[in-house]
Amino acid sequence: MSLWVLITLCAALFQTWRTALQQRLRGQLSLNGAAVVRYLYGVPFGLMILGTYWLVFGGSFGTPTLWFLALCAMAGLMQIFGTNLLISSFGPRGFAVGTAYSKTEAVQASIIAVVVLGEVLSLTSWAGIAISVGGVMYLTLAGRGLSPAEILRATTQPAALRGMSSGFCFALTAICIRTANAELPGEDVLLKALFAVVLTNAMQTVMQGGWLLWREPGQLTAVFRTWRDSAKVGALSAAGSSCWFMGFALAPVALVRAVGQVEILFTLLFSRFFLGERLKGKDVLGALILVAGVVLVLLGTR
């Protein structure tokens, strides 16, 4: 198995786990409060991951450029928007379905990467991306027993629009991250990726923490009061972001995001065993279609 595939699978697992914990925090914190904990508490853990990697493998990189800093800031802002949109989409349709809507990100990221970064994908990979997204949408809409008219109406509901907008923001985040990694001088792409994680999370803490201080000052106290749960979110966020950033450094954005759709499988497991939501037989069919698409994506990289 290629290193980037293993790292991407880990990223999907950590992200699902973190999102599930964030959903639980919604009962203790506001939308922005639940979102900011992943950055605030993620910075110390990100520094630990960066430091551990450097102690084991060594390496160095050059002075960050203004363009690199701007790309990290843009990636951080897009991730904030994407996270808030994703969390706000959970209420109307549930945890698993809210996440599924955001999985249109794979197609969005693929198209943007081809146009902006000039990435080239095989026909097999494109077919795999289409099939995997089809599996997600079956899981989300057709798998719920909706008629064609109801499916059309569902795609214009607030939950669907927020989920798809979330996917667009995450797609832009991935593009900015890959571009930033290439902009930072240095030979070790993984070391550069881990540095970008810490820097981006620090910027996000200032951006969303500042917003929270201005609009919801009382939530800052709550964020620190819930440190036991929030620290777990931060640790998983740092681990997940580190894996995503490293994945984007090693492979094309389109492929990483396509394989990362296995997150929906982890989401189904978490929604069933962690959040107590019931699953249907059609959920399994949708998951199998998704897996078949991911397999095609991987076959297309050979």
Automatic annotation (TrEMBL):
PANTHER family: ACYL-MALONYL CONDENSING ENZYME-RELATED. The chain crosses the membrane at residues 38-56, 68-91, 111-139, 193-213, 233-252, 284-301. Pfam families: EamA. GO terms for cellular component: membrane. Residues 161-298 form the EamA domain. Gene3D superfamilies: 1.10.3730.20. It comes from the Bacteria. This is Drug/metabolite transporter (DMT)-like permease. Keywords: Membrane, Transmembrane, Transmembrane helix.
